Amino acid sequence: MATLTPEVLDTEEPGSHEATGGLWSWITTVDHKRIGLMYGGTAMFFFLLGGIEALFIRLQLAVPDGTVLTSDQYNQLFTMHGTTMVFLVIMPLAAAFGNYLLPLMIGARDVAFPRMNAMSYWVFLFGGIFLSSSFFLGGFPDGGWFGYAPLSTQSEVIRMDFWAIGLLILGIASLAGAVNFTTTIFTMRAPGMSMFKMPVFVWMQLVVAFLLLFSLPVITVALFEVLFDRNFGTLFFDPAAGGDPILYQHLFWLFGHPEVYILILPSMGIISEVLPVFSRKPLFGYQFVVFAGAAIALLGFGVWSHHMFTSGLGPVAESAFSLTTMFIAVPTGIKIFNWIGTTWGGKISLKTPMLFSLGFIAMFTIGGLSGVTHAVVPADTQQTDTYYVVAHFHYVLFGGAMFGIFAGIYYWWPKISGRYLSETLGKWHFWLMLLGFNLTFAPQHWLGLQGMARRTAVYPPDIGLDTLNMVSTIGAFTIAVSMLPFLYAMFVNSRKGLAAPADAWDGRTLEWSISSPPPHHNFHEVPHVEAIDDFWHQKYGEDEEGRAVRIKTFPEPSRYTDEYIHLPSPSYYPIMLAAGLVLMAYGFVFAPLGIPLFVIGALVLFGGAFGWAQEDPDHPMGDHADHHADAHEGTETGDEAQAGADASGDVSSDDVSSEDVKTGEVEVAADESGGDDV
Amino acid sequence: MSSETAVHGPIGTDGADIRKTAMWAFLGSECLFFGSFIATFLLYSDETNGGPGTELFDIPFTSVSSFVLLMSSLTMVLAHNAYEREDKRQMRIWLVATALLGTVFLGGQVFEFTTFYAEGLRMDISPFGSAFFVLTGFHGAHVAIGVIMLTSMVIMSRRGNLHSHRGMNVELVGLYWHFVDIVWIVIFTVVYLLQV
Amino acid sequence: MSTVETTSSTREHPTEKRYWLIALFLGIVTAIEIAIAYIPDLNRTVLTVGLVGLGILKFGVVVGWFMHLRFENKTMSRLFAIGLILALSLFFVVLATFSGILAS
Ligand code: HEM
Ligand SMILES: [Cu+2]
């Protein structure tokens, strides 16, 4: 890791993210920006993997009676495609944005728990490798991404062990991340930034963290029960002994539906940042967007059974869940209107981030509408388990979540790297992807309504499914082609890109007030926030007609400062802990042979945890000692949250008491400026 | 500012202890974890599949071990109290006491499990057995982790290595420990007392 | 700065003696619970209500005093409360769908 003394920093090459140190510095890093980048890179790798799996699926389905894959291979591929895209792509990409941006947007120097943050990443990486390695160890999991019992408990081979354990591991990463983000947002905002002055992206990350906190434990239990049924002879889901597979469905979807909002809300946050900037107008109805996000979170916990309409819940339950499902479309619709309202009458600039955001709105609306048709029980009875459902969730997940993520990549890349991504390539990427996406998934609405079942490796000829399937496959390959300009722009062209100033898009939020790429410590001085979009209001005032006029121009901020700024030290315990965990996982899968491995893993894990507990986050020990001139910081050594404690160093008591925490996902309305707590 | 209070962790800009906030978020999450297992148990409380059921429960015995765990919350809070007074010795004594009480509870659980197995209640005999053993077993695992953390803290404190600002401190472990205790309060009521 | 500093300590924490008294109280409640469970032929509803009530009481005392939640700020209590309320309500619904009371 780079030394932080100014002399050294000055010689650092400005374009590089954090300069010196090499591999070890990445392995031990606790810097949220680096962790965010690693999250993003890894997830993008898995995106390509999941994409290749999808291409195989579409090849098989291109013509009737396909022979590209056996049905066993087909089962493996659709299971891993779904599992990969949900758990190894979209969730970690959301975590990548959260990691990189949360501290920058709330004016903090890091997240609340930098080491735990690093651990989340390593656990995610190893969990992803573990899950994917099943390919070489007996085959990918093959019981579907939701692993319905008793199919998942009865298959003889270890594939579904990989699935269950893999998801348990990934759950640990997500849970730690959720605790971290929740705490960061509640306790580390810059002075003056009350909850309702936070950027919408931060709000959405908070809502996602809540959803994770309260839904992950439920799937954890479902997975444990499957695992115990498979390995220890328990009878949770064995109907012959009185067990009930419907319980599994409840537990899975109690997690599963909140999960779909976990996947979409970060992208909603991203486009809520992009649209105002490229319309040069504030977000229309900030409060509504925030409340709608919170409402979605709350309602999102009350609709899970709409995935079980054909499981025989009974008319009362079905009606109730049908109603709640229709209700959840209301806050969703509110957001759509707010985004449209934001662009209305704005000075729209159709740069790539904006294109992807507009694409999001259009595609997501289509997906939302087909979702509402699922809410109608009799209709859903026809639609369920057909390609109509497949079309629905790809419109929300790909047309929605992924488009939002691409918008975010194009939007923040200049901040991250100091260079713009090529607009020409970006536009090729967008238009090809939009075309390919619709070619692939629009026909699936018709296919599904004509009765084509999902998760079936072949369909017979002459029942009218041929043409649309071929179109869909062509679309899938168009999507693959659309990735080429993107990859080219990222990996080849990005070094030659136009240099970006700190404020690359005339932005509104705090991250644009610091240099591109950001200083290692983010802010030379912890900002003091007075309004929503504080940075914008520092730059612009209004003339008599209410038009924005530039009132101030900031000099290009430097990446370096002469001051010593204290940051948490690197640590190798996070990766050690993660390694122990994954060793245990392999050991468990291959028991009894693997038991020694399990024990070794447990020891490594324990050693990591014990070392971690004793490590002083600010006084690096032994071999990873590097840069801290700790003499003058002796008394200030905080813990992981040092950055936050620093930030609060210049809080005046007024600021704090006047804003208390307006917490909770639903109670946000209650604005107690309760000095009594403070 | 965080440095002045030796016995508390760092404070955030909202005036709250940062790590306690995180701990409570985690505990909120744990409510759903145990909630799922308890719901599973309630669903299967009659599914004995011809095997033994709740009639095997030995309420007097479980009452005693419940009482032991309850009292470990007292010793835990006393350890925390000593910690806040910066009375290291007292703190270690109460930490050891807590860990011992936890171990006694675990011993009781081992005894209970072996008795049940001898009497034919196994986790592979019925959904009831599965739900019972897995629920109480996961609770037991939480207690065991707590005992390990308590022991580690005693060791660290003897080495002069226990600092409020590091990964672990008495207050956080205490919160965890009490939580495990209240989960048992629920289990004792719902799984044992209400079923016989 | 001082107002921030005192967040968790402005309100008096219980003293050591208070803790012993609380523990005594918890012990007595547990004894009552066991006694109730042994009353022969006690009406099932009374039994359930009684035991659940006493369980909640113990739960609340440990959370409020031993875990200091009474003395913490609202963020913490809300985080916990949300988890608790969600657990209770969601699993109530799940079990209700199994019980058949929603079936017709
Ligand atoms: C307007 C809001 C929405 C409504 C009313 C809605 C409704 C539904 C319903 C009723 C189903 C079950 C269909 C069936 O299996 O028969 C479903 C499936 C699904 N939805 Fe949505 N949905 C909405 C938004 C979303 C969003 C935003 C996402 C994700 C970002 C999403 C992802 C999914 C997924 C992945 C499935 C399929 C799960 C599977 O069977 O594999 N939905 N939706
Ligand atoms: Cu759903």
SSE order and pairing:
The complex is a heterotrimer of chains A (about 675), B (about 200) and C (about 100).
Chain A: H1 6-11, H2 22-27, H3 32-61, H4 71-106, H5 114-133, H6 151-154, H7 159-187, H8 200-231, H9 245-279, H10 286-300, H11 315-343, H12 352-375, H13 377-383, H14 387-417, H15 423-449, H16 466-493, H17 534-539, E1 540-542, E2 548-550, H18 573-589, H19 595-614, H20 642-647, H21 653-659
Antiparallel strand pairs in A: 1-2
Helix pairs in contact in A: 3-4, 3-5, 3-16, 4-5, 4-7, 4-9, 4-14, 5-7, 5-18, 7-8, 7-18, 8-9, 8-10, 9-10, 9-12, 9-14, 10-11, 11-12, 12-14, 12-15, 14-15, 15-16, 18-19
Chain B: H1 18-44, H2 59-84, H3 88-118, H4 127-158, H5 170-192
Chain C: H1 2-5, H2 16-38, H3 44-66, H4 74-99
Helix pairs in contact in C: 2-3
Bound molecules: protoporphyrin IX containing FE and copper (II) ion.
Fraction of residues in helix of chain A: 55-70%
By CATH reckoning, the class of chain B would read Mainly Alpha
Instruction: Enumerate how many helices of chain B there are, as a single number.
Output: 5
CATH topology of chain B, which one? Four Helix Bundle (Hemerythrin (Met), subunit A)
Indicate how many domains the architecture of chain A comprises.
2
Percent of residues of chain B in helical segments? Answer: over 70%
Order of helices and strands of chain B: HHHHH
Overall pLDDT level of chain A: 87
Bound molecules: protoporphyrin IX containing FE, copper (II) ion
Structural class of chain B: mainly alpha
Give the CA-based shape of chain A.
globular
Overall domain count of chain B: 1
Per CATH, what is the topology of the largest domain in chain A?
A: Cytochrome C Oxidase, Chain A
Short synopsis of the structure:
Helices cover 61% and strands 1% of the residues of chain A. Chain A is mainly α and 678 residues long. Chain B has 196 residues and is mainly alpha-helical.
Q: How would you characterize this protein structure?
A:
The complex is a heterotrimer of chains A (678), B (196) and C (104). Chain A has 678 residues and is mainly alpha-helical. Chain A has two domains: 1-31 and 510-571 and 615-678, no CATH class; 32-496, Cytochrome C Oxidase, Chain A, CATH 1.20.210. Chain A contains 21 helices and two strands. In chain A, α3 runs antiparallel to α16. Chain B has a single domain (14-193), classed as Up-down Bundle (Four Helix Bundle (Hemerythrin (Met), subunit A)). The termini of chain B are far apart. Helix content of chain B is 71%, strand content 0%. The longest helix of chain B has 32 residues, at 127-158. Chain C is mainly α and 104 residues long. Chain C has two domains: 14-71; 72-104. Chain C has helices spanning 2-5, 16-38, 44-66, 74-99. The model of chain C is unreliable at 1-10 (pLDDT under 50). Classes of the chains: A mainly alpha (678), B mainly alpha (196), C mainly alpha (104). The interface between B and C is large, with 54 and 52 residues. The complex binds protoporphyrin IX containing FE and copper (II) ion. Residues 146, 260, 263-264, 306-307, 325, 328-329, 332, 368, 371-372, 374-375, 380, 383-384, 389, 392-393, 396-397, 400-401 of chain A line the site of protoporphyrin IX containing FE (HEM).
